[in-house]
Specification:
The complex is a heterodimer of chains A (497) and B (99).
Chain A: H1 8-16, H2 22-40, E1 43-45, H3 48-63, E2 75-79, H4 106-113, E3 117-122, H5 156-163, E4 169-173, H6 180-186, E5 189-192, E6 213-217, H7 220-230, H8 248-254, E7 261-265, H9 266-269, H10 276-291, E8 295-299, H11 307-322, H12 343-354, H13 357-370, H14 376-399, E9 402-406, H15 422-426, H16 433-438, E10 441-449, E11 456-463, H17 468-486
Parallel strand pairs in A: 2-3, 7-8, 7-9
Antiparallel strand pairs in A: 1-3, 4-6, 5-6, 5-10, 9-11, 10-11
Helix pairs in contact in A: 2-3, 7-8, 8-17, 11-13, 11-14
Chain B: H1 6-15, H2 22-39, H3 74-78, E1 84-85, E2 88-89
Antiparallel strand pairs in B: 1-2
Helix pairs in contact in B: 1-2
Classes of the chains: A alpha/beta (497), B mainly alpha (99).
Protein name (chain B): Aspartyl/glutamyl-tRNA(Asn/Gln) amidotransferase subunit C
Keywords (chain B): ATP-binding, Ligase, Nucleotide-binding, Protein biosynthesis
Pfam families (chain B): GatC
Chain lengths: 497, 99
């Protein structure tokens, strides 16, 4: 089997055993990228020499007997919102075009230390604001299953790269579903760890109380190995949790759901606005879990429907504050500084030229929600709704170990279909947002193809804070049972690129 | 009835330091109006007696000892600056008129 089709765990084992070098593995993936990137366009920055240098350095470390983790030498693609000191970081925004960060994000630093080799930086919706990666200021990324469709978003470059076998692993960030939704629509695994379980240091901020770095992979075990490699307390992030990382790798290897209590979220399984093929695959997954010995019950969380409007007040409010740092003074773009204009005028001209339409919309929406006279009705009320949703989750987790739902209401939609309709775009995150508001762990695993369009459907598994291992345990059980039914991975059914 | 007027959007753009054109103001006024009408549904949740959550986890402020540690050099800190003079960020004038 060619190197690009292998799992990350297999590649790590081959490299550790000296059967193949990290440089050879990197080269195979760089070749694949050269072949399919013209169609997929998952990457914003590729630098073959830098990648090969990193790989050769890992080979040297291994030859010198250095003890590295199970993913040493395995290549990875990073969402271009994590700072990297040897590659540009743009957040897919013109305002950061050509910026070379002077430091590494904790996630990228830890993965370098563990011996992972960076293949490049992947495309995203500008500042991670979007659900289709169409809001990138640079390029459209195409879904490897159907090049006329979106790869999801905001981490759409990372999902497409893994689904197109350009990278075995990638990183993403999930603020309202930006890992789980793209994973779902490209037929791969994507995990939003517990908020605070993975460090935000060096992650360009969108909504700080929600932003969560997490892994993409083609299978549950690989995702767990990656999460374990970058997780853990970070003194550089004041919201980082100082507690042991849940044993996610062990859970991914275990995959036993016998006796587990699983709750179906009634409000997200009823079908309103959902595609029939998505619901059909979801219902089959429910039956499958029962057949594996889980006890499935229905759980009602009536306020989850209000999570979407609450999120679209909270996230823009935080974004309007966070993006104030792009002031044209210390880094990034500066426009109109002709010696006659004031700093304030230069700032306004730069931000108008450097930010795209969705970013401007959210900055203004957040500014509105936080302004005096509206604060209580909008931001204040949204924060209360956040509490109500947290209480419903808490009550649900008294009854069950995990909650499940489809990851998204529909499969991948056509490029351009929702680009001019912000509200239609926002609905893509309907089922994923509640877990962001409460910091819960949640994963998306492939559960089949929709009958109408033959495109991937994802199953979302949600667990309480620091219950990440439960997501992996249930995800592994579903994956194992479905892959034996399919005779291989879901991705094996994707058309050749 | 519209939730937000074009004049209000112009005010928000000023507060947000976004120099928008007249066409953009018209465009955003329509879109923000639809979005605000939709997000206003948060009011439907009965939450009078509920405390607000600003955060997902019950975290309090974190402190560390006030010790000198390694940080960016001036060269690194200035490496992405649009304009630099004498090891400092050079910025456009910040006062109203010639001082």
């Amino acid at each position: 089997m060619s190197l690009i089709r292998k799992t990350a765990a297999e590649l790590g084992a081959l490299i550790a055993a000296g059967e193949v070098s990290a440089a050879e593995v990197a080269e195979a993936h760089l070749d694949r990228m050269a072949e399919v990137e013209p169609k997929v366009k998952a990457f914003l920055h590729i630098d073959r020499e830098t990648t090969l240098e990193q790989a050769r350095a890992v080979d040297d470390r291994l030859r010198a007997g250095e003890k590295l983790g199970p993913l040493a030498g395995v290549p990875i693609a990073h969402k271009d919102i994590f700072t990297t000191r040897d590659m540009p970081t743009t957040a897919a925004s013109k305002i950061l075009q050509g910026w070379h960060p002077p430091y590494d994000a904790t996630v990228t630093r830890r993965l370098r230390e563990a011996g992972l080799v960076i293949l490049g930086k992947t495309n995203l919706d500008e500042f991670a604001m979007g659900s289709s990666t169409e809001n990138s200021a640079y390029q459209l990324t195409h879904n490897p299953w159907d090049l006329t469709r979106v790869p999801g978003g905001s981490s759409g470059g990372s999902s497409a790269a893994v689904a197109a076998y350009e990278a075995p692993l990638s990183t993403g960030t999930d603020t309202g579903g930006s890992i789980r939704q793209p994973a779902s629509v490209t037929g791969i695994v994507g995990m939003k760890p517990t908020y605070g379980g993975s460090s935000r240091y060096g992650l360009i901020a969108f909504a700080s109380s929600l932003d969560t770095p997490g892994p993409f992979a083609r299978n549950v075990l690989d995702a767990a190995l990656l999460q374990e490699a970058f997780s853990g307390h970070d003194p550089m992030d004041s919201t980082s949790i100082d507690a042991p990382v849940p044993s996610v790798v062990e859970a991914a290897r275990n995959g036993d759901v016998a006796g587990m209590r699983i709750g179906v979220v009634r409000e997200f399984a009823g079908g309103e606005g959902a595609q029939p093929g998505v619901l059909a695959r979801f219902n089959e997954a429910v039956e499958l879990l029962e057949s594996l010995g889980a006890k499935v019950v229905e759980v009602s969380c009536p306020s989850f429907a209000s999570a979407l409007p609450a999120y679209y007040l909270i996230a823009p409010s935080e974004c309007s504050s966070n993006l104030a740092r792009f002031d044209a003074m210390r880094y990034g773009l500066r426009v109109g500084d002709d010696g006659t204009r004031s700093a304030e005028e230069v700032m306004a001209l730069t931000r108008a030229a450097g930010f795209g339409p969705e970013v401007k919309r959210r900055i203004m929406l957040g500014t509105y929600a936080l302004s005096s006279g509206y604060y209580d009705a909008y931001y204040g009320q949204a924060q209360k709704v956040r509490t109500v949703i947290a209480r419903e989750f808490e009550a649900a987790y008294h009854q069950v170990d995990v909650l499940i739902s489809p990851t998204t209401p529909t499969t991948a939609f056509p490029i351009g279909e929702r680009a001019d309709d912000p509200m239609a775009m926002y609905l893509a995150d309907l089922y994923t947002i509640p877990s962001n508001l409460t910091g819960n762990a949640a994963i998306s695993v492939p559960c089949g193809l929709a009958d109408e369009d033959g495109l991937p459907v994802g199953l979302q598994i949600m667990a309480p804070v620091l219950g990440d291992d439960r997501c992996y345990r249930v995800g592994a059980a579903v994956e194992k049972a479905l892959e034996s039914r399919w005779g291989g991975s879901l991705l094996a059914k994707a058309p050749a690129l | 009835m519209s939730a937000i007027t074009r004049d209000e959007v112009a005010h928000l753009a000023r507060l947000s330091r976004l120099a928008l054109t007249d066409d953009e103001l018209d465009h955003y006024a329509t879109q923000l109006d639809a979005i605000i009408e939709s997000v206003a549904k948060v009011a439907e949740v009965a939450a009078e007696d509920v405390p607000p959550s600003s955060h997902a986890l019950p975290l309090t402020n974190v402190f560390r000892p006030d010790e000198v540690r390694q940080s960016l050099t001036p060269e690194q800190a200035l490496s992405g600056a649009p304009a630099v003079e004498d090891d400092r960020f050079r910025v456009p004038r910040i006062l109203g008129e010639e001082a």
